[in-house]
């Protein structure tokens, strides 16, 4: 059973939940990092969808379907 109840997390919650995942790949041009939940095999993407804001805005962690 995964520790993730939702399909998307934002801000500090996204960063906190990211620590439970394994980093797979980083794309610095897109400001995206691909992670995997080793318990379930689910893939997750950490990105910054509001890149026009200072520092890229709040991080978003979303399940990749």
From TrEMBL:
**InterPro entries annotated for this entry?**
Imm27
Instruction: Name the Pfam families for this protein.
Output: Imm27 (PF15590)
What is the designated name of this protein? Immunity protein 27
From what organism does this protein derive? Answer: Roseibium suaedae
